[in-house]
Write a structure and sequence with these properties.
By secondary structure, the protein is of the alpha/beta class. The protein has 15 helices and 18 strands. It has 2 domains: 2-207 and 404-421, Aldehyde Dehydrogenase, Chain A, domain 1; 212-399, 3-Layer(aba) Sandwich (Aldehyde Dehydrogenase, Chain A, domain 2), CATH 3.40.309. The protein binds nicotinamide-adenine-dinucleotide (NAD). This is Aldehyde dehydrogenase.
Length: 454
């Protein structure tokens, strides 16, 4: 592939190793995003009517915050890090050098199409790599503006966009990359991992999952309903860390359902289709998939749709069966199953029915219960008495575990994942301990006493 060869040649010139070069590039990106923020919001609106506030908060300003942090800290992050030396190597100084991998491939999904292309890109460029980004074909207007921004800011041998769908993605994956960063479904994540394995390419896989939200009988129900409603119907439920289903203690279920209905109406009005604050399902295919999930289910609220616009209203579903379509996989839309539990065994039966989720939320005022859930179940990350907000602190690594992903990023973690940690010991020449050299008879007695001889 010609583009990749160009990027490899460019990387070989060592220019990306220069911190001032990286900073200049990131500053140009910062300026371009600030200047084009309205165009970006318009493009995403054209793709699936994402409200401008959500674009600013979760896409452009999110990326700008990552950029600001990287620009402020890149000198420190990139500096070789000194570690305590061992006695056996005395006299030495021991270091970790941060080495860019080289040619990075970033494959992005459609749901936060701007953020999920540019947030990893910031880390990859800050760490001194070249980058090819493949945006999602499902959001073509955003893909176009991503291309325009990258073309305006970077030389193609440094960073470039390759547009296209599955075939283009597969062509890219057939190449040998030095690092692959993929965000998308677990199914495609497996394909990416297989392709990467052929070249032993390291990966970060940011995948999906079926995220439970547990509401126990001690929870502050009104606040729980408010926070679940916000996190679930933001982006019309098309958020990887949104609640997938609610497990609520049966004694407070009715109260919770009532409060959820109230907050949905409070947020989006009586006629939700006219609300400027509610996105559309991204495509006809996704819309039909969601409609099919509702077949045969008991709808407690919503369920309204308009196929001309891929509109599906916030919908509450009562007690879907584990074997129903709705509970087979990730919903990824504005449908929210509400399931009552009686015992902790009921909670376990549901959670353990799926791979490890990307997120889990616990609404409870009992510390012991909160702790029990955190300790017992494995999941990417989560929140107590809230949803989604764990993504907003750049000091917290963001990523999945098991079927919800491999690796994490954001903030300094983004810089670290795109850097090989090269261990170097700098040995002094003025002394050379004889212990490690043969003949060994003199050192034999010492070998068990001194750890880390080699
Ligand atoms: P997807 O896996 O269908 O597509 C993601 C990317 O992979 C796209 O660029 C697409 O062109 C490409 N692709 C699709 N099929 C491919 C194939 N067979 N071979 C190679 N490449 C292929 O995902 P999506 O529908 O765009 O996004 C939704 C999924 O992403 C959900 O599962 C969601 O949970 C997950 N997600 C995860 C995160 C996270 O941070 N963990 C964030 C957003 C979305």
């Amino acid at each position: 592939m010609e583009l990749l060869k160009k990027q490899r040649d460019f990387f070989t010139t060592q220019r990306t190793k220069n911190i001032a070069f990286r900073k200049k590039a990131l500053k140009r990106l910062q300026k371009e995003i600030i200047e084009r923020e309205d165009d970006i919001a318009e493009a995403i609106y054209k793709d699936f009517k994402k409200p401008k506030f959500e674009t600013l908060a979760a896409e452009t300003q999110f990326v700008l915050a990552e950029l600001k942090l990287a620009l402020r800290n890149i000198d420190i992050w990139a500096r070789p890090e000194r570690k305590a030396a061992t006695l056996m190597n005395w006299p030495s100084s021991d270091w970790i050098y941060k080495e860019p991998y080289g040619a990075v491939l970033i494959i992005a999904p459609w749901n936060y199409p701007f953020q999920l292309a540019f947030a990893p890109l910031v880390g990859a460029v800050a760490a001194g790599n070249t980058v090819v980004v493949k945006p999602s074909e499902v959001t073509p207007n955003t893909a176009m503006i991503i291309s325009e921004i990258v073309n305006a800011v970077f030389e193609p041998e440094h960073v470039a966009v390759v547009d296209g769908g599955v075939e283009v993605s597969q062509e890219l994956l057939a190449e040998r990359w030095d690092y692959i960063f993929f965000t998308g479904s677990t199914r495609v994540g497996q394909i990416v991992y297989e392709s990467a394995a052929k070249h032993l390419t390291p990966v970060t896989l940011e995948l999906g999952g079926k995220n439970p939200t547990i509401v126990d009988e001690t929870a502050s129900i009104d606040l729980a309903a408010k926070r679940i409603t916000w996190g679930k119907f933001l982006n019309a439920g098309q958020t990887c860390i949104a609640t997938d289903y609610i497990l609520v203690h049966k004694s407070v279920k009715d109260k919770l359902v009532k409060a959820l209905k109230r907050y949905i109406t409070k947020s989006y009005g009586e006629n939700i289709e006219d609300s400027p604050d509610f996105s559309r399902t991204v495509s006809q295919r996704h819309f039909e998939g969601l409609k099919a999930m509702l077949e045969g289910e008991e709808v407690l609220f919503g369920g309204d749709s308009n196929e001309d616009d891929n509109y599906l209203s916030p919908t509450l579903v009562n007690e879907p069966k584990l074997e129903s379509k709705l509970m087979q996989g990730e919903i990824f839309g504005p449908i929210l199953p509400v399931i009552a539990y009686e015992t902790e065994a009921d909670i376990e039966r549901h959670i353990m029915n799926y791979g490890k989720p990307l997120a889990t939320y616990i609404f409870s005022n009992r510390k012991s219960f909160q702790k029990k859930i955190i300790d017992r179940y494995s999941f990417g990350g989560g929140a107590i008495n809230d949803t989604v907000i764990q993504i907003t602190n750049e000091k917290l690594p963001f990523g999945g575990v098991g079927s919800s992903g491999i690796g994490a990023y954001h903030g300094k973690t983004s810089f670290d994942i795109f850097s090989h940690q090269k261990a170097i010991i700098k040995k002094a020449n003025w002394f050379d301990a004889p212990l490690r050299y043969p003949p060994y008879n003199l050192s034999m007695k010492l070998v068990k006493k001194i750890k880390h001889l080699f």
